[in-house]
Write a structure and sequence with these properties.
66% of the residues lie in helices and 5% in strands. By secondary structure, it is mostly helical. It starts with 6 loop residues before the first helix and ends with a strand. 25% of the residues are buried.
Length: 166
């Protein structure tokens, strides 16, 4: 006779990619935080990726976090997006998540290129050298996709109901 499993364990089994991604993000965050690694070592920046050819930063930056609040909010937000994995299935969700990592970095490169080419030299250079880390872009993309498919309504501060897509 098998014992009934908890709802959390059932969620882990139904959304293995989300669970594994959360685990990977935590497993990467902890040594970075614990060893006080500089974000400069793994961050994504136009200069490092385009000028220096360090394309690996697209993956390292997306999966790196440096403070507890950042990793905490990203994990909670990703966990709330696990419904996308339920809708699409684990394999499609995994492939699309990876595509969103790449697409978000390409969009960032385009925005930085556009902004830096129109700004005077010191400000433009600052845009190119600025770095970013975190999984937020992918999570926001999933939130946008999920809200676009929603037919329900959401309450704004309990005052008014608006379509979830908004």
């Amino acid at each position: 006779m098998s014992s009934p499993s908890s709802p959390f364990i059932q969620d882990l089994m139904l959304t293995p990619v989300t669970a594994l991604t959360c685990a990977v993000l935590i497993l990467i965050w902890f040594p970075l935080w614990n060893n006080r690694v500089s974000p400069e070592k793994v961050c994504f920046s136009y200069t490092k990726v385009v000028t220096q050819g360090e394309w690996w930063r697209c993956l390292t930056a997306a999966h790196s976090h440096f403070d507890l609040a950042h990793i905490g909010f990203n994990i909670m937000s990703l966990w709330s997006c696990r419904v996308a994995e339920l809708m699409l299935g684990p394999w499609v969700f995994f492939v699309q998540s990876l595509a969103l990592v790449v697409l978000s970095k390409l969009i960032m490169l385009g925005v930085v290129y556009g902004a830096s080419s129109r700004l005077p030299s010191p400000q433009g250079r600052a845009w190119q050298e600025g770095g970013s880390v975190g999984y937020s872009a992918v999570i926001f993309a999933w939130m946008t996709i999920l809200s676009a498919h929603s037919t329900g309504y959401s309450s704004v501060f309990g005052l008014v109901e608006v379509p979830s897509v908004m």
